[in-house]
Amino acid sequence: MGKGDKMSKAVELSINTIRLLSAEAIQKSNSGHPGLPMGAAPMAYTLWARHLKHNAANPKWQDRDRFILSAGHGSMLIYSLLHLFGYDLSIEDLKNFRQYGSKTPGHPEFGHTSGVEITTGPLGQGIANGVGMAMAESYLSKKFNKPGYKLVDHYTYVLAGDGCMMEGVSAEAASLAGTLGLGKLVLLYDSNNITIEGNTDIAFREDVAKRFEAYGWQVLQVEDGTDVEAIDRALAEAKQEENKPSLIVVKTQIGYGCPGKQGKASCHGEPLGEENIKATKSNLGWAYEEEFHVPAEVRGHMESIRLQGMEKENAWKKIFEGYSREYADLAAEWEKWHHDGLVTNLSSNESYWNYDMKPTATRASSGDVLNRLTTLVSNLVGGAADLAPSTKTYMKDMGDFSAEDHSGANLHFGVREHAMAAIANGIAVHGGLIPYVSTFFVFSDYMKPSMRLSALMKLPVIYILTHDSIGVGEDGPTHQPIEHLA
Ligand SMILES: Cc1ncc(C[n+]2csc(CCOP(=O)(O)OP(=O)(O)O)c2C)c(N)n1
Which H helix or E strand runs over 362? Predict the structure, then answer.
């Protein structure tokens, strides 16, 4: 960033404000993870200030860009951002970081803090959640967009660290994202080569960029994670690629700004200490004594960004008005899909309850029910981890979501149970769609971390787990769900 002019000063101050609010909140609560917010502040700022389409006044605007902090331990980063960009999160809330009942819990929680798109913390999940959100965006755009009316046109941005890249679930999901060509998914990789136990060399030496290239992603590099203009260019380039998801590898230094700790694992997960915060302030040229200070230039800068966000949603509302006049039926469908108006009349629907009373395998009945639902619940999407013929979860005449065509409601997750459930969580929180996923009951083991998160977030993800009897004898004990129900 060119030093000297007013704008650059606001940029630099904004980034340092993110760093210091984060470090001070963690210091006050005497626990938390300052390293990531301090190192990733420039990329987070650049994304939120220059690219992210959002309106702080309405965090539920359906066509907003989605932002996921997959590295959920860096939660103070998202809280600092939400505060500065005008969301309903006060300095007082930041001061209550990690306190029981506060709006700023240790890891970001969906439904708890306005502006937090999804619960993260178990590493890797956020990347797969992002794949789900990007799939939802693309499917909805195919369903609703009409010439002159881009009702659905948003990006999904994920910020992930080394830990997320090591977790298998991210590999499963990234492979699927590349296969499907999800062009509106952008993954910012905070590559600082540090995890809890030290340098990543001890357990992780592969070339992540090459791995993602092999998955079919566009891969971009930012050598200096403090270079706002380089990050800005990479984000612009990522958005231009319509047919591939983009990975931006951003080389950063964990705990950037803290002289005694930057680049070291010791600033990953513990407060910096009062003396180190003082040293950081002086090192960063921070001129303010007061704690939790937001300089006036930063407030002004953020206010103008906040207003731009409002204008963006207003422009979208105009598009929706025109759309409602020209495509009234579709607009009504849009409203239904987005406002739970679909799950109402099953109990009074006689044909839905009318079945032949002959002995039928439960999975066959389940498949029958699912196919009846497609006409009643038109926003159902889902599939299996390569087991649909066995789990009877294919929806007839609903098309297939494939690399070539994103308009099909049948999803093919491949043999990737864990990512399947995490992707379904992403689809469910995205809004507009009701996802189901399926595999044998015994393989629920492979997706339990994401099932747990569905439950924690109270998401309407439908799990169809078949072959639930220990009597599935021929396959032997590996396929017998003996302890699963318990
Ligand atoms: C599934 C899972 N395993 C382990 C952890 C505990 N954990 C939290 S942060 C972390 C290290 C993450 O390193 P990195 O992503 O590089 O973050 P950074 O050190 O840059 O903050 C670990 C192992 C977790 N949150 N989730």
Answer: helix 362-376
Per-residue pLDDT tens over the stretch 181-208: 999 999 999 999 999 999 999 999 999 9
CB 140 within 8 A of CB 427: no
Domain that holds residue 474: 350-479
Domains in the chain, number: 2
- Tell me the CATH number at 404: 3.40.50.970
- Residue 303 lies inside a defined structural domain of this protein: yes
pTM for the full predicted model? 0.97
Q: Do 262 and 135 share a structural domain?
A: yes
Structure-block tokens of residue 262 = 């930057």
Span from the CA of 193 to the centroid of ligand 1 (angstroms): 12
The answer to whether position 31 is within a domain reads: yes
- Beta carbons of 56 and 90 less than 8 angstroms apart: no
| Cα 197 to ligand 1 centre (Å) | 10
Question: By the 8 A CB rule, do 188 and 98 touch?
Answer: no
> Could you tell me the maximum CA-CA distance found in the chain, to the nearest angstrom?
81
The residue among 311, 342, 372 that closes a domain is: 311
Whether 251 and 223 have beta carbons less than 8 Å apart is answered as yes
Q: State how far the Cα of 287 lies from the Cα of 38, in Å rounded to an integer.
A: 18
Last residue of a domain, one of 311, 340, 360: 311
C-alpha to C-alpha distance for 322 and 381, rounded to whole angstroms: 28
pLDDT one-digit tens code per residue, 346-371? 888 888 888 888 999 999 999 999 99
Rounded CA-CA distance 280/394 in Å is 57
**Mutational test site, ligand 1, from 165, 196, 249, max ligand atoms within 8 Å of CB:** 196
Alpha helices, H only, 30-166: 35-50, 75-84, 91-95, 125-144, 162-166
Cβ atoms 59, 87 nearer than 8 A: yes
Determine if ligand 1 sits within 6 Å of the CB of residue 411: no
More confident residue, 473 or 424: 424
Over 70: is that where the pLDDT of 7 sits?
A: no
What is the CA(333)–ligand 1 centre distance, in A? Answer: 41
CA–CA separation, 366 vs 196, rounded Å? 45
Q: 418 in ligand 1 pocket by Cβ < 6 Å?
A: no
Strands 194-195 and 198-199: antiparallel
* 324 within some domain: no
318, part of any domain: no
Q: Scan for tokens 């369903």, then name that residue.
A: 143
Indicate whether 282 and 422 sit together in one domain. no
